[in-house]
Design brief:
289 residues, alpha+beta, D-amino Acid Aminotransferase, Chain A, domain 1, D-amino Acid Aminotransferase, Chain A, domain 2, 2 domains, nine-stranded mixed sheet, 8 helices, 29% helix, binds 4'-deoxy-4'-aminopyridoxal-5'-phosphate
Length: 289
């Protein structure tokens, strides 16, 4: 039996799970989403993900038609039906069906969709050998235009950057902001290690405030590693001792080349590997329930 997808309280076969072509989520990218992970059957940092989902909804004036508790229960139910223990979960709330015009007030029925699937990380070799990335011309959305803090269905900004990464023959792009400072990647946050200090661009750099980013900063502080949220330039990237990316799906992935410059000694760094180990211990603490 194939995977089932949750749509507004009902489960549908993956191949038949569908919503209207008049949904503004499709017509205009008008909606929000969140990604979750389970480890050993337990949702990781569910409260933080739910809070971010509701903040995204609030920011686009989209009233999410279920409570955080109801959504959590719906995720658990969908996972159970699909028999998934270590899963990736995509929760989507669209504006719903409207007219062909933009007016969101004509949409009266937001759609709640939950897709649960197996996790697809970067191939294992990248965790061992590290990833090559490039900085790209497409800059991250200016927060006065569309705040990168909103996890919306409109990911075109990131997709344009991803196209540029693919054209350069690498898997991920580093996006700068309008001031030329490093912001983040297309689906991950970025960290560097320089002289023993861990640094990552601050929220004002124009980033999605990643939950994994937050966990990594907590783990680093716990390990006594100095942590700074500060502006990072391309120069800082090139001369860093270590670099890595963080995200719900990717977890922590080392970066060893940026714009053809070798980072550190071209191998995943010591602090990166220490944090990856700590992260795996942290997620491993999740026990079923
Ligand atoms: N930045 C962007 C643009 C993302 O899409 C993601 C993935 N959600 C992240 C950063 C990482 O966030 P998180 O650790 O919460 O998955």
């Amino acid at each position: 039996m194939g995977l089932k997808v949750y749509i507004n309280g009902e489960l549908h076969e993956k191949e038949r799970a569908a919503i209207s072509v008049y949904d503004h989520g499709l017509l205009y990218g008008d909606g929000v989403f969140e990604s979750f992970r389970t480890y050993n059957g337990k949702l990781f940092r569910v409260r933080e993900h739910m809070d971010r989902l509701f903040n995204s909804g609030k920011a686009i004036a989209l009233c999410i038609p279920m409570t955080k508790e109801e959504l959590t229960e719906a995720i658990r139910h969908t996972l159970q039906v699909n028999g998934l223990e270590n899963a990736y979960i995509r929760l989507i709330v669209t504006r719903g069906v409207g007219t062909l015009g933009l007016d969101p007030d004509k949409c009266h029925d937001p759609q709640v969709i939950i897709i649960t699937d197996s996790v697809s990380l970067y191939p294992e070799e990248f965790y061992e050998k590290g990833l090559e990335v490039v900085t790209v011309p497409t800059m991250r959305n200016h927060h006065n235009v569309l705040s990168p803090k909103i996890k919306s269905l409109n990911y075109l900004n990131n997709i344009l950057a991803k196209i540029e990464a693919c054209q350069a023959g690498v898997l991920e792009a580093i996006m700068l902001n309008h001031l030329g400072f490093v912001a983040e990647c297309t689906g991950d946050n970025i960290f560097i290690v320089s002289k023993g200090e861990l640094a990552t661009p601050p929220p004002e750099a124009g980033i999605l405030e990643g939950i994994t980013r937050q966990v990594v900063m907590e783990l680093a502080r716990r390990a006594g590693i100095p942590v700074a949220e500060r502006q990072v330039t391309r120069f800082d990237l090139y001369v860093a001792d270590e670099c890595f990316l963080t995200g719900t799906a990717a977890e922590i992935v080392p970066v060893v080349r940026i714009d053809s410059r070798e980072i550190g000694d071209g191998k995943p760094g010591k602090i990166t590997l220490q944090l990856l180990q700590m992260f795996r211990e942290e997620t491993g603490k999740c026990s079923a329930g």
